[in-house]
Amino acid sequence: VRVSIVGVTVSPTNPQGRAWDLVGGEADPVVVTASVPLHREIDRTPVSQDHNNASWNRWLPGVYDAALDLPLRFTVFDDDATSREEIGSADLDARALPATAGEFAIPVRAAGTLGQQTGALRLRIEDVP
Hints:
Blueprint: E1 2-10, E2 29-35, E3 40-44, E4 53-59, E5 72-79, E6 84-92, E7 102-109, E8 117-126
Antiparallel strand pairs: 1-4, 1-8, 2-3, 2-5, 5-6, 7-8
């Protein structure tokens, strides 16, 4: 399959109930994609300044075999000038692939024991013959 990061929607506040930016305002999301089986980063979106609803429509490099190359881990950060705060992550594994090609969303969850949902990652899957 081919995978595209369509965008991400981030909750307006972090798990502690505060704004993502110290002076208020929306998050500055960036999505880092890593191959879990290969233990390496494979892509990084540009930072979307002050957008809790960011869009990229960015195809990941390469084609992925569901049995061999997944899961992919998408980690979403709030990337400010002086700090980088993890918003949460989402894994795409073979079980999460939709039955048909197209766009779908997976929850982004904060790290920790509660795994609070902090957003939704929108992906597009395209079958490759």
